[in-house]
Design a protein that fits this description.
The chain is an alpha+beta fold and about 280 residues long. The protein is built from 11 helices and 9 strands. It folds into 2 domains: about 110 residues, Orthogonal Bundle (Arc Repressor Mutant, subunit A); about 110 residues, 2-Layer Sandwich (Beta-Lactamase). A hairpin with a 2-residue loop joins strand 5 and strand 6. It is globular, with a radius of gyration of 19 Å. The N and C termini lie close together (about 10 Å). About 45% of the residues are buried. The chain binds zinc ion. The site of zinc ion has 7 residues, from helix 3, strand 4 and helix 5. InterPro entries: IrrE_HExxH, Rad_response_metalloprotease.
C-alpha cells in the first residue's frame, strides 16, 4: 500500500466527508501520537517514539505549515515506527529536492491526509484547470500551504500539469502529473520570455498562453503552446503552473533519449501513490 493510500484509508475509517472534519491533531492522538508546539533549532518538527506512544514537536508557524508538519510526523509514526526524526517540512519543496525516501513518503502521507482525493477531486473537476485563484481557494478550504496544494493538485493525476518553483532564475524543484511524458523536462534556468521571469522582476501574478519552447529545450517544443500561471512565492521565489493544453504534447514520443532528469535527482518521483 502506498503512503497516500494509507492516509486515505485512515480518512475513510474515520468516515470523513468534508474538509472541515480533517482534524489532523485528533488523527494523531488516535494513533498514540501526542502533539506539542515548541521552538526547534534547525528543523520544523521532530518525532520521538517509545513503544506505542510518541511525541511530535512542531515549530509554531502558520496553520497550513503546522498541519502539514503534523501530518508528516504522523506519517513517520505510522510507517517508520521505532525511529526518531528531525524534519524540515515547513516547505514541501525542501523534501522534493532531497533524496530521502522516508521524507518523501511522510510528505506523500501528509498531502493525502490533508487533501484526500475523494474530497479534492470534485473541486478540481469543477474548475477544470485550476489557476492560483483556485489554488488559493483550495488552500483556504483544506488549511494547507499554497506550495503543498499546488503539488497535490499536480499529483491528482487527471491534469496535464507540471508545477515548478524557481529561486532567482534557477529551478529549485518541480513535480509533474504522472501522465506528463518525461521528454517535457522544464528548463533549469528561467527563460526571459516566460511570464515567471516578469513576475520575478515586476509583478505578483500573471497567466497566459506561451510557446512551449519558452519552457522546454526539447527539439519538438516549437510545435506547441502551453498555458502558464506564475505567482510570486516567498524569499525571491516564483511558483509556476504549466498546463500542457495541447493534447499532442501528452502523447508525443521523444525522438531522442533524455538522461537529464535522472541525473537531476528529483524528477517525477515525488508521490508514487498514484491511484
Ligand atoms: Zn520527516
Amino acid at each position: 500500500m502506498s503512503p497516500g493510500e494509507r492516509a486515505e484509508n485512515l480518512i475513510s475509517d474515520f468516515g470523513i466527508t468534508s474538509p472541515e472534519e480533517l482534524d489532523v491533531v485528533a488523527f494523531a492522538y488516535d494513533a498514540g501520537l501526542e502533539i506539542e508546539f515548541d521552538e526547534l533549532d534547525g528543523c520544523d518538527a521532530t518525532l520521538l517514539g517509545f513503544e506505542n506512544r510518541a511525541i511530535a514537536t512542531i515549530r509554531p508557524s502558520n496553520v497550513g505549515r503546522e498541519r502539514f508538519s503534523i501530518g508528516h510526523e504522523l506519517g513517520h509514526w505510522e510507517m517508520h515506527r521505532g525511529r526518531s526524526f528531525r524534519c524540515r517540512v515547513d516547505d514541501p519543496g525542501e523534501t522534493l529536492a532531497s533524496n530521502s525516501e522516508h521524507e518523501k513518503h511522510a510528505d506523500e502521507y501528509a498531502a493525502h491526509l490533508l487533501m484526500p482525493r475523494p474530497l479534492l477531486m470534485p473541486m478540481v473537476k469543477s474548475v477544470g484547470r485550476p489557476g492560483f485563484k483556485h489554488i488559493n481557494e483550495f488552500s483556504e478550504i483544506f488549511q494547507t500551504s499554497r506550495t503543498a496544494t499546488c503539488i497535490r493538485v499536480a499529483q491528482i493525476d487527471t491534469l496535464p500539469l507540471i508545477v515548478a518553483c524557481y529561486r532567482g532564475n534557477d529551478l529549485r524543484w518541480h513535480s509533474r502529473a504522472p501522465d506528463v511524458p518525461k521528454r517535457w523536462f522544464i528548463k533549469r534556468r528561467l527563460d526571459e520570455d516566460s511570464l515567471a521571469y516578469d513576475v520575478l522582476q515586476y509583478g505578483k501574478e500573471m497567466q497566459g498562453k506561451q510557446p512551449a519552447e519558452v519552457w522546454f529545450d526539447d527539439d519538438g517544443a516549437d510545435a506547441y503552446e502551453v498555458m502558464e500561471h506564475s505567482a510570486r512565492g516567498r524569499d525571491g521565489e516564483v511558483l509556476v503552473l504549466i498546463y500542457l493544453t495541447d493534447v499532442e504534447m501528452m502523447t508525443a514520443q521523444s525522438n531522442r533519449s533524455r538522461g537529464a532528469e535522472d541525473s537531476f535527482g528529483f524528477g517525477g518521483g515525488y508521490l508514487k501513490g498514484r491511484r
